[in-house]
Amino acid sequence: MGWWKDRVVFLTGASSGIGLAMAEQMAAQGARVGLAARRKDRLEEAERAIRQRGGQALAVECDVTRDESVARAVAEVRTAFGPISVAIANAGFGVVGRLERLGIDDFRRQFETNVFGVLRTAWACLDDLRATHGSLVLVGSVAAYVPGPGSSPYAASKAAVRSLGESLWAELAPDGITVTTLHPGYVRSEIRHVDNQGRLHPDSRDPIPAWLVVPTDRAAREMVRAIARRRREVIVTGHGKAIVALSRLAPCLVAGAMKGKRRPGRRNPPEA
What we know:
globular, 7-stranded parallel beta sheet
């Protein structure tokens, strides 16, 4: 089963989307996966499905905005499977809107999950990762490279994740810990159906054209492969690679295209 066999994974945001797809693929390759998220019912359903296919999984309720919740979830996975060897900080959502319609609490709520939630996950797993010479994985976004108008809280939070990944990659290398930062573009998930308060609206319209949205399983395969190869940073999805490359080669062109542009849709981030 290759690199993933018997790896112990702690994965936040595992109840849907990219997180769930990665969990299923890692378990299929022999990993023992701790599924962490707030929605315990969905996690238990995912756990049952993975076990029915012969994989190993454990559903643990976890709110990444609370220190004690993350610590408890990590302890449950460690007790069941052993020391964490791969910690994936995937939980996140998007706060969007024009600046004059947002308040400081909107930015604070965004950073509490997307940045401080990443840090809580890293801190809770750090001793295990040192002991196992493991991997810390941060899930960012193409928005960290190409922030769009009307998405300043989300883009700023993902830019912070990108900087964290770059810094921790160098800082933790002497401890034998690999840090991988993944930056997906448009991927089929629930994130564009979640409002600024973190509430899901499953019947809301996806503002992104269907032809631009990459299937979840395809994006997850690319991410799982990058983690196993212990890559430092990976842009996920073809359109994500293209827009990041264009922003590096012709930054003024991209900036000009973004200037004054209004977001389609209502309140969701431009990248997953």
